Amino acid sequence: MNLYAIKAIYTFEMARTVRTLMQSIVSPVLSTSLYFVVFGAAIGSRIEAIDGVSYAAFLVPGLIMLSVLTQSISNASFGIHFPKFIGTIYEVLSAPVSPFEIVVGYVGAAATKSVILGLIILATATLFVSVEILHPVWMLAFLVLTSVTFSLFGFLIGIWAKNFEQLQIIPLLIITPLVFLGGSFYSIKMLPPVWQTVTYFNPVLYLVSGFRWSFYGNADVNVGLSLLMILLFLALCLYAVSWIFKTGYQIKT
Amino acid sequence: MSPIIQIESLSKIYDTGFEALKSVSLDVEDGEILALLGPNGAGKTTLISIIVGLVNATGGSVTVDGRDIVDDYRHTRALIGLVPQEITTDAFETVWATITHTRGLFGLAADPAYIEQLLKDLSLWDKKGEKLMTLSGGMKRRVMIAKALSHKPRILFLDEPTAGVDVELRKDMWALVRRLKDSGVTIILTTHYIDEAEEIADRVAVINHGEIIVVEEKAELMRKLGQKTLFLDLQERLTVLPESLSAFNVALSEDGNQLIYTYDTNAERTGITRLLATLNDSGIRFRDLSTTQSSLEDIFVKLVRDEA
Ligand SMILES: Nc1ncnc2c1ncn2[C@@H]1O[C@H](COP(=O)(O)OP(=O)(O)O)[C@@H](O)[C@H]1O
Ligand SMILES: [Mg+2]
C-alpha cells in the first residue's frame, strides 16, 4: 500500500478546500441559515409539529443532508475532473499508485470535507433551534456513510463528464429534485398515498429518514432499510469505480 | 547486461481507428541516452505514454527492469520519471509543494535536503515559495523536470524537452542530462530536432508513421548512412566541367572556383584516389581541400524519403 501517495493526494485536495474556503464552507452555511430563517422561523411557526418535533427542528437533518449530498458530489467531481481537464492527472496515473489508493485519496478528502460541513451546519442550526440527538453514534455513522457514498458518486461523475457542463448537469437535474422530493423538508406521511408510494423509489428518502431517526428516534422508513440502501448504493459506486479503472474508461486512451 | 527497457511488438490503435504504433520493438540499454527521433505524429509520445502507464497498449508488451509494465506497474513506475511534452501545472501550488507532492505520489517520505539540492541544480531555489502561476514558461518547465526527478528515478523520459525553450535552459538541460547519465540514469528523449539527437544521444532510434525505421549508435548511424562531400578549391577558375570528370559524381560550384565531390563513406571505394589522379592528368590544380560529414538531418531526410 502506497500510503505516502494517499497522503499526497489527500493533503493536496484538502489544501484546495482551504483555498476555496468561501465557496466550500461559507456559502452552504449561509444558505442553510437562510433556510432556517425562512422555513424554520417564519413559515415553520405556522406548521404543526411532526411526530412531536417542531418543524424547525424537523428540518435540521434534512438540511444537513441536502448540503452534504450536493457538496459531496460537486466537490468530489470537481476534484478529479479538474486535473483531467488541465492535464495534471498524468502525474497520478504515471505514479506507482493503485486505483484504490487514488480513490481513497480523492474521495477521502471530499468526504472529510462533507462531514466537517455537515457538523458545521449542525452547529449553525443550534443557533436557531434546539436540536436533540438521540443516537449520536448513528448520526455520525449516517453522516460519514452518506459523505463517502456521494463523494464516490461525485468522483464517478467527474471521470464520466467530458466537460464542465456535464459536470453540473447530474447534480442539477437529478440530485436536487431527488433531495427536495425525498422528504428533506416534510414527512412523507404528509403526502397523499400515491405520492408516498412514488417516494419509496427515491433513494434520498432512505438517507434522510435514517439520518432523522438518529436525531429524533422516528422515521418514515425502517432504519435498517435506510442503512441497507446506503450500503447498496455504496457498493454500486465501488463497483463502477473499479470497472472504470479496469477498463481505463475516460481516463486512459 | 540485459536492457533496462524491452519493448516487444508494441502496437496502439486509438479509438479513432488510427494506428499510432505498428509493432514496435526496441531495447533501451541501462545507462544510455537514447534519442527517439521522428517528425510530429510519428508516435513518440504514444510510445512513452504506454511505458509510463498513461495509455493502454493494443498489443505487445513492455518490460522495465525485467518486469511487465502492466502486471508489475508499482515496480516499473517507481523507476521512471517523466517530463511530458505539455507543461501542465497546478496554478495555486508553490514550487516546493508541488515537488514534494510528486515525491509523495511515488511513495517516498519528504526529503528536504534532496529537494533543496534539486531546486538549486535547476536554478529554482529562489522560487521555491512562489505559486506556479506566477512563473514563466521556462521556469515551469524547470519545475516539471524537478518533479520528474523528485524520486530519483533510474530512467528519465524527456518528451520534446527543448520545444519552445530558450538557449539558457537548453544548455542547462543538456548539462543536467549529462550529469544524470554520469550518475547512471538512463535517459530517453524525443525530439524532432536532429541536431539535438546528434548533440546528446548515444544511440538514435528513428521513428516514423508508428514504426522504428532504424536504431543505431549515433556514430555508427552517421558512418553507415552518412555521405561525405569533398570540396576542392581550384587554383584557376573553370567555366565548364571538363569532359574527363564526367564519369565522377562531381559538380562545379556556381562561381567556378570549386569542385564538389559527393561520395558514400560506406562504399567499397570512395573514388577519391581515382578522382585526384584524373585531375592530375587533366592538369587541374587545387589550392586546398576540405570534407564535410552529412548531419543526422541529411540522414533523416534520406531515411524518411526512402521509406515513403
Ligand atoms: N488520444 C488520441 N486519439 C486519437 N489519435 C491520437 C491520440 N493521441 C495521439 N493520436 C495520434 O497518434 C499519432 C501519434 O501521436 P504522438 O504519439 O503524439 O506523436 P509524436 O509524439 O511523435 O508527435 C498522431 O497522428 C496523433 O494524431
Ligand atoms: Mg509528441
Can you summarize this structure?
The complex is a heterodimer of chains A (253) and B (308). Helix content of chain A is 76%, strand content 0%.
Walk me through what this model shows.
The complex is a heterodimer of chains A (253) and B (308). Chain A is mainly alpha-helical. Chain A has one domain (3-247). Chain A has helices spanning 3-19, 21-43, 55-86, 89-93, 99-125, 136-160, 164-180, 193-199, 203-216, 223-247. Chain A is globular. The mean pLDDT of chain A is 89. Chain B has 308 residues and is an alpha/beta fold. Chain B folds into two domains: 5-222, Rossmann fold (3-Layer(aba) Sandwich), CATH 3.40.50; 226-293, Alpha-Beta Plaits, CATH 3.30.70. Chain B has ten helices and 14 strands. In chain B, the strands form three sheets. In chain B, strands 6-7-8-3-9-10 form a six-stranded mixed sheet, with helices on both faces. Chain B has a four-stranded antiparallel sheet with strand order 2-1-4-5. A four-stranded antiparallel sheet of chain B has the order 12-13-11-14. Chain B starts with a strand and ends with a helix. Bound molecules: adenosine-5'-diphosphate and magnesium ion. Residues 44-45, 85, 159-160 of chain B line the site of magnesium ion (MG). Magnesium ion (MG) is lined by residues 44-45, 85, 159-160 of chain B.
